[in-house]
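re: ur question from yesterday

yeah so i grabbed the chain u mentioned. its 399 aa long if i counted rite. heres the sequnce exactly as i have it in my notes:
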Amino acid sequence: MMTIGTLGAVMSPYMIEVTRSVLDVEMRTAGILVSAQLLTSALITFAVARLANGPHRIRLAGVGLLMVIIGFAGAAFISAPPVFLTALFIGAAGLGIIGAAGGAAFAAFRDLNRASGVFGVTNRIICAGILSMIPIFSGGPAIVFGSFSALALCGLAVLFLLPRAPLATARGLEGQQQSALQDKPSHGDIRMPGRLKLAGAGIVILSAFLGIMTDAFYAVILRVAQDQVNMTMAQTGMLLSGLTLGGFLGSFILLLGRRLGRPISLTMFMVSAACMILLATVTNSIPVFAASVLIFGVLGNPILCLFMATAGAVDETGRWSGQVMASYMVGASFAPFIGSSVYDAAGPLGVGLVAVGVCAVITPLAAYCALVSIRAERAFEMREASSAGYFAQGSLSPS
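ran it thru and got these structure tokens back, copy pasting raw so excuse formatting
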């Protein structure tokens, strides 16, 4: 579900080109329209995030999937400007609803590091498959927007697998024990409710700045490659393909579990990613530029996945995890404009320095949020163990 919800950002370059072609407008106008769609998706995610936390999650996801199918199918086959634009924004709203439902469901899993790693791997596999098909089929409206509808149809087929409630409260205790555990409060009520709320809100806000930091660099990679290191179009195409592969490999890091710890991993990945952006914007060597961009691609996906894991650990109902992706999308929707503006004003080095500055501000804050989330998980595990022990003792007591 989250892969479908995030597909708009991945497909935005092709969406811009198709929108420009269908509406016969300038590239800048097409970019503004696509950015408005991404922003619409993000705002819709925020608007329905609370509803996605409750028992209506699957129904809500189904509505979003139907909106994506209908909206993008209309955009794929109807070129009349009013219908085309209306269909696009209907589809964008559907993506926002799916993002909220998928993000809230993410928090239900017990091992969030592994869950985020699985999400990263499957996300990259699906995105790489779609992106590889578009050039083969000429990248027209039918293939670009039809891929959204086709993936949403697949989502409908597996909709029943979406978790309805935190797995900690939905897995297998009977009678009084089941009832008592279902009535237990969420992580936010275990300890430090103020800190947990602060960490949850904080990681959501920081996700917007993460979107700006990473996607602003993505937006100018082609310009840096051509202007600074004189890469050919063929070399640039291979580099962008490597970026997708890098994200796929990076997601496997999270499948190792908690060996490094979430705060340490997050700090290492973010600092390394900022350094790679800075190196890519100062070097004139093609091998060094390519290596720094590929390493950045490896690190980018795990960072976002760790943000999701942090939000999910703070509140198992999905209160915050459903909003992390929306916040990231808000930052990402402004990132092309910010990246291009900084590039025009200060050149490639300016983009690198902005990335380092943003990283210096948000990394310690994100690490603190991750530390709070780890403490919340441990407190919850201790309480769950004590509850199990209490019920086991009660079952052995004489009646």
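noticed a couple things. Residues 167-191, 395-399 have pLDDT under 50 and may be disordered. also The radius of gyration is 22 Å.
anyway ttyl
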